[in-house]
């Protein structure tokens, strides 16, 4: 088959395109493989008392109304982002990141003090 296609390509100079994309719009299609960026629900961390052995889901998209935990909003508002699930070994009071840009998720690492967070808009939750 490949030999046949190669032979035909040379003879008639085929232009291959995906058949489900009309030629008129094909040049306007942009594919993005990057996950969406989270919105910033808080510019401060959340002080939380965790229970050892309990499973938690930390919101990574910022759209959850149950911050800092996931309420499933990523499924409709930030497809490509998933909550970070974790189980603390023992009871502990911790600071969970509220800005969603920590480099040590789910814990605050002080990133919220950087200019790109301080100057960024705060996400206001909506009812939809
Ligand atoms: S709240 Fe995100 S790093 Fe502190």
Describe this structure as you would to a colleague.
The protein is α+β, with helices and mostly antiparallel strands and 128 residues long. The chain has a domain at 46-111. 18% of the residues lie in helices and 12% in strands. The chain has helices at 2-12, 23-26, 74-77, 115-118; strands at 46-50, 56-58, 84-86, 92-96. The strands form two sheets. The protein has a two-stranded antiparallel ribbon. The radius of gyration is 23 Å and the shape is globular. Mean pLDDT is 83; it is low at 1-24. The structure holds FE2/S2 (inorganic) cluster. FE2/S2 (inorganic) cluster binds next to loops.
What are the SSEs and their pairings?
Elements (H helix, E strand, L loop, with lengths): L1 H11 L10 H4 L19 E5 L5 E3 L15 H4 L6 E3 L5 E5 L18 H4 L10
This protein binds FE2/S2 (inorganic) cluster.
The site of FE2/S2 (inorganic) cluster (FES) has 12 residues, from loops.
